Each structure stands twice: as C-alpha cells, then as structure tokens.
C-alpha cells in the first residue's frame, strides 16, 4: 500500500474544512432561527422541533443542489464529448 501523498492530505484537509464550514453554517442558521428563549437552561420542545426541521430542510436542499449540479455536469460532459466528436469527424 502506498503512503498518502501531500496532495491526498491536502484534499482530505480541504474536504474536512468544507464539512466544518457547512456544519458551522447550519448550526448558526438553525440556532438563530429557532432558539428564542434565553431565560432558561432547558431547550423548549418548540425550539428543538424547529431546529430539527431546519436541519432536515437544509440537508434536503443541499442534497437537491448536489443532484442538480451532477445532472448539469453530465449534460455538459455529454455536450463536450459530442462537440469533440463532431470536430474530430470534420477534421478527418
């Protein structure tokens, strides 16, 4: 087994940083939207439910965007391949 290269380490670090940034954004967003009462140490059930709904919507949105991006990339790749084949057949 080959030892990890610095490129692999950089990719892993970048991926972890992206994950942390996304997690922190989600936490801040849902906390700001859902936590209203600071007079008690306990989290109210309405705040907890709001946080769960917020997280679920964020995750679904993120998944949907990823799916659309993948679909767009596939279409763009197919178009690029078709264009390259067309240029290749013309130049022959």
The biggest beta sheet reads:
none
Morphology? elongated
Radius of gyration: 22 Å
How much of the polypeptide forms β-strand, as a percent range?
Answer: under 5%
Number of helices: 2
How far is the first residue's CA from the last residue's CA?
44 Å
Q: Averaged pLDDT, please?
A: 89
Q: N-to-C SSE series? A: HH
Q: Percent helix among the residues?
A: over 70%
Which stretches of 5+ consecutive residues score pLDDT under 50?
none
Report the structural category.
mainly alpha
Q: How many strands appear in the DSSP assignment? A: 0
Structure in a nutshell:
By secondary structure, this protein is mainly α.
Which characteristics define this entry?
2 helices; Mitochondrial import inner membrane translocase subunit; metal ion binding; elongated; 92 residues; mainly alpha; chaperone; Tim10-like_dom_sf
Overview of this structure, please?
The chain is mainly α. Helix content is 83%, strand content 0%. The protein has 2 helices and no strands. The mean pLDDT is 89. GO terms for molecular function: metal ion binding. Belongs to the small Tim family. It comes from Frankliniella fusca. InterPro entries: Mito_inner_translocase_sub, Tim10-like, Tim10-like_dom_sf.
How are the SSEs ordered, and which strands pair?
Elements (H helix, E strand, L loop, with lengths): L5 H29 L10 H47 L1
Helix pairs in contact: 1-2
């Amino acid at each position: 087994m080959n030892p990890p290269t610095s490129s692999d380490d950089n990719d892993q670090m970048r991926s972890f940083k992206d994950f942390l940034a996304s997690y922190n954004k989600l936490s801040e967003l849902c906390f700001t939207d859902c936590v209203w009462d600071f007079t008690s140490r306990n989290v109210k059930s309405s705040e907890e439910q709001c946080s769960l709904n917020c997280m679920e919507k964020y995750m679904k949105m993120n998944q949907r965007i990823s799916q659309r991006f993948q679909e767009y990339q596939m279409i763009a790749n197919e178009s690029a391949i078709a264009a390259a084949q067309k240029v290749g057949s013309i130049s022959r």
